[in-house]
Design a protein that fits this description.
69 residues; mainly beta; SH3 type barrels; three-stranded antiparallel sheet; YjdM_C
């Protein structure tokens, strides 16, 4: 069961907000704190979600850097 930084349960299709600036390996750019990510997908690992970010495509994020919107 995936949980955000506050311990709130995350479900497929939820929207989340980043709580920290994250550098993206290979993209040479940073996802800024406060970025809203919509329609997340759960992965096999409880501490990771998959999402689509504008101009970056599909990316996997750790749930410890997210809070449910």
């Amino acid at each position: 069961m995936a949980k955000d930084a506050n311990g709130t349960e995350l479900n497929a299709g939820d929207s989340v907000t980043l709580i920290k600036d994250l550098k993206v390996k290979g993209a040479g750019s940073t996802i800024k704190r406060g970025t809203l990510v919509k329609n997340i997908k759960l992965t096999n690992k409880d501490n990771e979600i998959e999402c689509r970010i504008d101009k970056m495509g599909v990316i996997v994020l750790k749930t410890e850097f997210l809070k449910k919107a």
